[in-house]
Every structure is written in structure tokens, then in C-alpha cells.
Amino acid sequence: MSDGRRPRLDDWIRRLGGSGLPIFSRTVQEVSGIAERRGSSARDLADAIGRDASLAARLLRVANSPIFNPQGRRIETISSAVVLVGFDAVRELAVSLALIEQVLQGRRHFKVTREMSRAFHAAAQARAFAEHRRDPTPEEVFVAALLLRIGEMAFWSVADREGTGIERLMASGSSEADAEQQVLGFTLAELSRRLVADWRLGELVERASSGGDDVRAADVRMGHRVALAVETSGWRAARVSRTIDEVAAHLGVPRATAIERVHENAQEAARIAALYGVPTIETYLLQAELPGRPARGDAELQLRVLKQIAEHLDGAVNPDELTRLVLRGVRRGVGMENAFVALRSPSGRSLQIRHVVGGSKAGVVPLPAASGDDLFARTLASGKPLLVTDANLGEVRALLTDEIRRHVALPFVILPIRAGERSIGLLYADRAGSGAAIDDETLAALRVFTQQLALGLASRSG
Question: Rounded to two decimals, what is the model's pTM?
């Protein structure tokens, strides 16, 4: 690290240990200090954790779960948790619970939830990989994966002006690492490595963050590769397929087995997050988009996603992140089965389908010269939603070009994305698998999500 970068990184370490995350820093330092002193006993560790009654109560709840206590032995005290679960496992569990509590008390930037979602998904994957290898302490692998990106979680829980600067650069096309470097003088991955070392978060997470080549560190990093690929690309993407091939090679199992296990691990991640006291995290986990899993409406989840969209719109809008949020709300919240967002190309001669969920496919759909010559062009020109079912298919059949037919299935709805008086794209959604009706309530919910997307995209382009 150059001399110019070190002072700025040191400043952030002090900020996170001072005004930023003071309770977490004190808890970590005390627990880690006891763990590293020779001759420390279970009672020493239990006393340190017990001074935080809330942390102790949550630790016992998690320690009694099947994740850490598969034999189902009743654990009623921290001392017995140390004996039955293990000194290192309890120490690292205390650290992760303290982290989550403090981060969630900070500024609720949408990236905090996204980072925490990725952490839980990665941790569930990594733990399952360790269990497959018959690792004697897979819970340590779980906690190491949970803490691997601690710098990212901590930063976004307190970020203000700097976070806005990073978002703006990313929205302008900069990579995440380049934006962080320009604004902060270091990357958040560097911040994570420093926090892991300075707060003594455990040898395994340190090895994983520094590129250690042992199999346990590889489990941690593989868990994060799966979580990142799914988060950024969706289950059906080629990137996820390649990552599953890596999992199959890592575990020495057939590809079909790797697919099944990775899907099961993603669903387990949502259950683990709820156990840790972070139930809303399932909105960001993509287990709802597993192939073959029918979508069901969830009014409560709709509201949670809309709240996250509102939080996103309060900052510098990232069009990709906003679109992913909207599509998650459309599929899981509204209960649509396949959906995509298509935006006009710069030339205006085509629609570019880049964001898809369910079985929808990405691609480019040419637009005709005359605005009414196909179904997409007519919807763009009219500025009004269009619902197509068996009942009215005859009225629009002539507008279904061969290219459009490759992207739609009955019953479906197309909603124009409006920026002022201009349609800049379309949101498409269907219930082709179940054939369930798209009623007025469903249309109203889809309009809300489309309006939020339009608001964000308009502010970005304006």
C-alpha cells in the first residue's frame, strides 16, 4: 500500500472503531483479547459476552439452532455453549452477531442489506461445502464467510458523502473497485482485510481474505463466488452455470448434484438470516427465482421491496440495482412468473432486453419504422399498459412479430416506462406457467413498480 493510501485507510479504521461502530469495536476487542490470551477459560469468554445481555440472549438462541447444535442438546448458558459448541465457534459467533446488530443500527443504505444478503447466502453455501467435506467444525467456515466482506458492510452502514460519490461514479460506468479507489483512496476489500487483522476476527477469515490456498479458505471464497454470481446475474445466467461447474469440481460431485445442493443452500440462507434476526433479507436473496419454482404474490414483501426502492431513490440511482429490485418485486411480490425490462437503444431503433427473471431471455428486439406496426412499438407509442389473454389475442395477433413471439407467452402484460411524455422502455410480465389470471389488483401493483422504475431512470438520464 502506498504512503498516500495508508493514512486514509487508517482514518477509516479509527472512524469505524470510534464514532462509527463503537459498541461493535469494543465487543470485538474484548472478546478477541480474551480468546488470544494464554490460559483464557470458558468462564472468561462467557463473562465478556454476558456483559452485553442482548448479545448473550441472541447467541444462546442461535447456539440452540440446528446450525450450531445439530444434536439438539439444550444450551442454557454461555459457558455451556463454549463447552458444547466450541471456544472458537462461540467467539466468532459473538463477533458476527455483534456486527449484525451494529450494522443494522447504522444508516440503512440499500447496500447494507445487499451486502448482508450476500454474506448470509455465501455463508450458507460455504458451510454446506464444508459439511460435504466432513469438516469437523463447519460452523467456523460459516462465520468466516459471514465476516469476509466486513469492510463493505461496515462502510455502507455509516457512509454518507463518500458513499454518494462512489454510487455516482458507478452509475457513470466505473467499476466498483475503481469508484472506491477514486473516492476513498483504497478499496473496500482492503478495508475488510485491515478490519479482519486489526479486530482479530479469526485465522480462517484472514486466510480467506488474503488468498490462502487451504481447502477451508477455498470453501469460504467459493461460497462468495456463488452468492455474487446469483446476485448479479440471476439463476439462469451463463455466469451462474459456470460457477456451479466450479462447485462441482471443488466438491468432486456430478454437475446435477452441485445444482441441487447450491439451490438448497440458497433457500437455507433465508432461514438462517431470519434466525439471526434479519428476516427482510430474503427480499435480496434470489431463492425465489430458482428454476421451476412457481411465483406467488406476497403483499408484505411488495411493501418491503417498495421501501428498499424508496431508499435507493434517495441516493445516487444505480439503474442496474434499481431494475433488479423492481423485477424482484414484480416476481416475488406481485406473483408474476417471468418478467423483463427492455429499454430503447440510443438510436431508438430497437429495444434492449438486459434484465430478466424467471424464464425470460435477454436479447435485442428491432422496432419498426412506423410506431403501430408491432405490439411493443404500439405500447410505447400509446403510453398505456396492455394486457393480452386468450380472450383478446385475436385483436393483437397481427402485431405479434416472430421476434416478439420469442419473448412473450399468455397471459401477459406490457407496461410502458415513461420519462415525462416519452416512453423509454417496457416492463413485461406473464403468468404463462400457471395460466393464472392477471386481475385489476395485479395490474395496479405492476403500475406502481413501473412508475418507481421510471422515476429512477428519469432522474438518472436527467
Answer: 0.64
